[in-house]
Amino acid sequence: MEKERSLPRGVFEKVPGSGIFWIRYTDVQGRLRREKAGSLGTANKLLASRRTAKLQGKLPETGRPGKAILVSELIDDALRHAQAQDSAYHAHDLKLKLDRVRAAFGRRAAQSIRKSEIIDWLASEARKHHWKPASRNRYAAAISLVFRVAVEDEKLPFNPAAGIRRLREENQRTRFLSPDEEGKLTAVIRRRFPDYLPVFLLALHTGMRTSELLRARVGDYDRKTGKMLVRQKKVRNSPAFRYVPLTPIGVSSYQQPAGKRKAGGPLCRKMEGGRLEDTRYWFDPCVAEAGLVNCVWYTLRHTAASSWVMSGVPLAAVALFLGHQNISMTMRYSHLQPENDERAVAALMSFYGDRAGNETDTTTDTSTPGGFQQAAKSL
Fold it and tell me: How far apart are CA 224 and CA 365, in angstroms?
């Protein structure tokens, strides 16, 4: 104990009497660190070096020479993590994003990456590719996942992408296809990718998210109820399934790929065989050929929702079909039912009967306290 008390502050002997000393210090980010140094003299020098790095605003390079972990290695770890934890669609989508990240940072030592570099890269890519805030946020989340998995695997002491502020997303876009646009796009897909036409039509007639549609299995449609089972994972703690009634076109679009295949297998398959993992490689060229503007796969979900609302389906029912966690998300479509305003007025006035049209007293001041009640009593 005497020996430990005489040691400089920040130096300690983990195993008393071993002669092997460690250092304890806080880095520039305020994180407590411990490092094995060796002899007492080496420990004193290493501690002084770490304190100097802190004063210079630098993070310590704790890896051994020649043993630096490259970002590319961490990206591979993150992809294996995603393949084990997420759906095939999300794993594939993550790979597409991280391929771009790998090109920029893959050969860099992981511990050399700074938060400011990541922020600058995101801003540069957003300008170059005209990303919307949502796209930028998805890339930031993908990069953060790479370093988070590395921290969990104890390959890195911290996550440089942690705390990057998300940009405000505009989620009120309700771009949907008009009947003319839907006809043009259907014709192009039927000509160029006829095998994928049922996938396109099923999206239009169910409002399923891309990952939900690609997760669908043979047997998910119940002929007795006329409903399609949707496997939902978007919202944490939400039910595992929801159900959407299918139109005759939706039923036909389900039956074509399902055929007589065994229940439980993937419903949406590639032309060359195997589970369909993406839609963009065939959908986007068709959109361009059809001459549609601002149309993405998610537009199909908006189209289904808008069609339901404009046909008079209650918003609460639409929320159930879409798998919205709360009605506020569905309210973005409420403007497509302007007749609800007229119904509200008619419903309220129905309580006054015939008196409403004959007994209206324009001399009653309804703007003063009790004015409305006085006007009602006069009817």
Answer: 59
